[in-house]
Specification:
197 residues; 7 helices
């Protein structure tokens, strides 16, 4: 299948089951290959990924619910609770991080580009998220990208023994999708893509 067709498969999928259409071994192989081959500025490889499956996955979303209950009014919590339950019913979650020490070392080594390294680390992480998300979609796995950081950062780091120098960027619950994705709308291409000759 052409790559331009494969990327059309990558959509936000929220109705996910706890099953996988592939083995856990194949899942970890796909993710690992994306981690290895996604590019980064100066080949710095600042992105880190934690794969949560089974009870660890469910633990993450219970922890997230507990954190959000502390800041969301009880009378307004029902929609949040429903959303979190949909993530918990999935098969697993990927946690995306940036290694702050890698960024800091590059800033010291190349001071001319100091201000750019945090930006470039985020760009590399975004490319990794896209690569994994697209590869999962090709394998029949649905996912969505969530951002409960920084609300959950400290609790997640403690619960899952994440190094202190890793900064949480995003969470990606995944599983076998049910139903169809929502319709996607697009701005006219000529407003976003310019050709100059």
């Amino acid at each position: 299948m052409p790559f331009t067709d494969i990327i059309k498969l990558r959509r936000s999928r929220y109705e996910l089951t706890g099953r996988l259409p592939i083995s856990e071994e194949k899942l970890t192989e796909i993710i690992g290959q994306c981690v290895l081959y996604t590019p980064s500025a100066f080949n710095s490889q600042p992105a880190r990924v934690v794969l949560l499956l089974g009870e660890k996955h469910k633990q993450l979303w219970k922890l997230t619910e507990d954190c959000l209950r502390e800041i969301v009014p009880a009378d307004k919590f029902a929609p949040t609770e429903k959303k979190l339950a949909s993530f918990a019913s999935a098969c697993g979650t990927l946690l995306y991080y940036n290694d702050k020490d890698t960024v800091r070392q590059l800033q010291e080594q190349f001071p001319t580009y100091k201000d750019n390294f945090p930006i470039w680390a985020q760009q590399a992480n975004g490319m990794l998220q896209f690569a994994v998300w697209t590869a999962l979609a090709e394998a029949g796995i649905g996912a969505s990208l969530q951002h409960y950081n920084p609300v959950i950062d400290a609790r997640v780091a403690k619960e899952f023994s994440v190094p202190a120098n890793w900064q949480l960027v995003a969470q990606m619950p995944f599983g076998t999708p049910e139903g169809l994705p929502a319709d996607k709308t697009f701005l006219p291409l000529d407003q976003r893509f310019y050709i100059k000759k």
